[in-house]
Structure formats: C-alpha cells, structure tokens
Amino acid sequence: MNISEKKMSIKVPGKLFFAGEYSVTKEGNLALITTIETNFEVRISATTGKSIFKTNVGLSDFEFSLSKIEFTKENPWNFALTALKNTLSAADSFEKKSVSKILSSSPEISLEIVSDLGFGENKKGYGSSASVVCGLVNAVNQFFDFQLSLEKRFEIAAKTHFEVQGSGSMGDIAAIMYGGSVFYQNHKRVIPLEIPWATYVVQTGKAAKTSEKIKIKLSDEFYQASNELVIELATAIDIQDFALFKEKLSENQLLLLENIPEGYMTKELAIALNLLNSYPEFAAKISGAGFGENIILFAQNTQAIAEVQNKLSEYGINLEKFKVAQKNN
C-alpha cells in the first residue's frame, strides 16, 4: 500500500501492579505486574498539511512538522511528542536507509489517541502516560515499517517515559509493552508470567498521583522483604498454589501498610479489602501506589462475585472483571 493511503490503529492495554510497586522504584528491585485490556487506541494515518496530534481527553490539537519536531517541556503533548521523536531517532540509527529519506518521501501524519483511562482527577490508575508512550512507539514503528524489535521498542519507551517524568521504575512500560503478566526487575529483565486465576479490579473512583508517592523514603529492610515476597508470590503462581499466593499477597499488603505513610489505605480501600479477603477463595491487594484508585482481585472460583459486587456497590465501589492483555511480539 502507498504510505499516503495508509491508515491503521492499535489497541494499548493498561497495567496493574500487585506486588513490589514501591520497592521496584529503586534500581535492581522486583515487582509483579499484569496488564488490563482497555479501549485505549492509537490511530495513525497519512494526512495533508502539517502533522497533528489529537485526542478525546480534553487536550487541544497540536500541529507540527515531522522533519522538525519542536516543543517545550510544558507542552501537554510532551509524552507523545518525545515518544515520536525518540522512535524516529532510534529507527534512524537502526535502519540502513536513513529515516530522513523515508520522511522526505512520505506525507505528514495524523496521530489520534482515543482513551477511556480518564484524565486529570478522573484517571483510573491504569498507567495512562505509559499507554501513550508504548502506543505511540508501536504505532509509529508499524506505520513506517521500521521493524524495531520488541526489546528495542521497550528501550525507546522506557527512555521516553523516564526522560519526561524524571522518575519511575519503568515497570508500567515493561508490562504494557510486553503484554500479559510479568515478573520485572528494575532496568534489568522482564520475565513473562501466566496467572492461573480469574482477575478483577475494584475501582474506588479516587485518583492518586503516583509520581508524588514513589518519592517516599524506605529502609533497606523494606526492600529486602519486598523482594523476598515478590519471589515467593511468583513461585506460588508458577506452582498454582492459591493458598500460598493469598498468604504472601497478604504479607505484602501488611508490609506496605506498616511502611507507607498514613493515607495509603483510604476508607474505601479498607472496606473493599476487608470484605474481599474474608472469602477464602479470593486474594485481594491494593494495586499500585495506594491513596485511592484500585484493588486487584484474584479469584480461585467466582461463585461469590455477584454477592460482593452488590455489597461493594452500596459504598459506591465498583468491581468488574478484566481480561489480561495478550503478549506482544
């Protein structure tokens, strides 16, 4: 197909941490993360005139030229523009044919981000900025047929996210870029996991700004204990021992409650967590930074799901099943 007629879209998952979310912010430490299928989509097509970014989440359209991408750090499209610029730069050094030659013979592009992950105070906590970065890297790579490997695309996305945000473990990038569920070691390795139990998310409707929370100072003993629990949880998943998994998930939750400042577990999170973990067939834990947002729930069997859905709804808390996103290649 002539690139001037090319049009495509890709779906991008979100992520939910369920162990190691604070520990993994320090290089070399471990976390367990799963992806969640969403309706987040990146659409890319050739266009006449200037290139343009547009979205449905309240940002104004932004026009630019592919041959000279210029913007400031304050630009609300910073994540997307940096992802585009870094992907083109990486492809230029990777490809034998200069990207500048490819672009000179190509039209400008329209990039549209369609998101149901929320924005600002209404974010769902699924890693929307990481979804933007991974989605842009994958869409641009596919549109221009750069043939960058999954490992290279992860490297570009991780560099971009850290460059813009200035902090973070890149665990959300690893999960979203690789898909499925992963055992992640900060800046070192990504190992696929297969979770054998049904997965649900409990949404409290209160957004939390993760970047502020991950700056909390923690002891060396905390990092060691967290890493040990991540390994034990990964083992329990591998041998499909739900009782052991629930026990270690509970220990991981307690470790965080004992070390993270007051406010980590909101009233809504406490209600949901106590209810869910009273059922032996359920294992639940606050996902991510806490201070609002989500609980991730694993169910050995699902007979009582409707019952707990009704009980949680009385407090304005939503429980819904989610599908783990497919692995990428």
Automatic annotation (TrEMBL):
Domain GHMP kinase C-terminal: 235-317
InterPro entries referenced in this protein's UniProt entry, alphabetically: GHMP_kinase_C_dom, GHMP_kinase_C_sf, GHMP_kinase_N_dom, Phosphomevalonate_kinase, Ribosomal_Su5_D2-typ_SF, Ribsml_uS5_D2-typ_fold_subgr
The protein's Enzyme Commission number: 2.7.4.2
EC top class, as a word: transferase
Pathway(s) of this molecule: Isoprenoid biosynthesis; isopentenyl diphosphate biosynthesis via mevalonate pathway; isopentenyl diphosphate from (R)-mevalonate: step 2/3
KW Nucleotidyltransferase (keyword) present: no
UniProt-listed Gene3D superfamilies: 3.30.230.10, GHMP kinase, C-terminal domain (3.30.70.890)
Source superkingdom: Bacteria
Pfam families attached to this UniProt entry: GHMP_kinases_C (PF08544), GHMP_kinases_N (PF00288)
GO MF term list: ATP binding; phosphomevalonate kinase activity
Protein name per UniProt: phosphomevalonate kinase
Organism: Lactococcus lactis subsp. lactis bv. diacetylactis
